[in-house]
Write a structure and sequence with these properties.
267 residues, mainly alpha, globular
Amino acid sequence: MRYIKLIKRLIYVFFKTSLQQDISFRFDFIVRLINTAISLAAGIGAIAIIFSKTHSVNGWDFYSTMAVTGMFMFIQSLKNLFIGPSLDSIAGLGGELWTGGFDFTLLKPVPTQLYISIRNWAPLTLIDLVISLIVIIYSFVHVYSDFSINSLLIFIIAIFSSLIILYSILLILSSLAFWYLGTPVLWIFNSVMETGRYPVRVYPFVFRFILTWIIPVGLIVSIPAEALMAKADVHEVLFGLVFGIVSYIAAVLFFKLSIKKYSSASS
């Protein structure tokens, strides 16, 4: 219980500090709106072009595909809200591993993994989060599905697994910087994530297999969208949960091992 209170307190303090920094640059709010509008228009426009000549691609119509795009925006928004900025402050260019500032992080009287995961926020990303929810809801009401309590439970499991898998991957990729400082794997992964804008089932079998079971973009984006529309395979959802738990344990162990590779700037 005390640990939960600590997390809530830290999130409040870090979010408040980040918000104060962001609102000091009011023009950024307008830029964020424009950027979100352009991104949304490009995403929906691409889908509209695809379905201007056909009504379905491998069983996916316009609105169900748009639901996947909305889910992609939702997951990306959560990542960009705090997970990405926080972890990037370690492994990114000019991050603590480059400057030696990680010394002070290790001295903080809070668990290191918790601290590096929630300390930096991008409050303006909440705009993207709200818009992604609007896209998801709009798409959902246009897609016929027998949504029930069981479907809701499956969706909750799918979205929970998705976020755990995403966090675990980002933590592992960030930890690689302890072994080799110039590793640009976070950038590479962000590029691969762009394939999640569309259902992985529309890709050829080989790419679908890779994007689901090797680079789990499908588990992160497509499966939760399918669960929302009551189209998900329960076995895949449960496998995603197991995969997420195993990934998280592996990520934590790898992070602890990687810290041992760190050489203090004062040493």
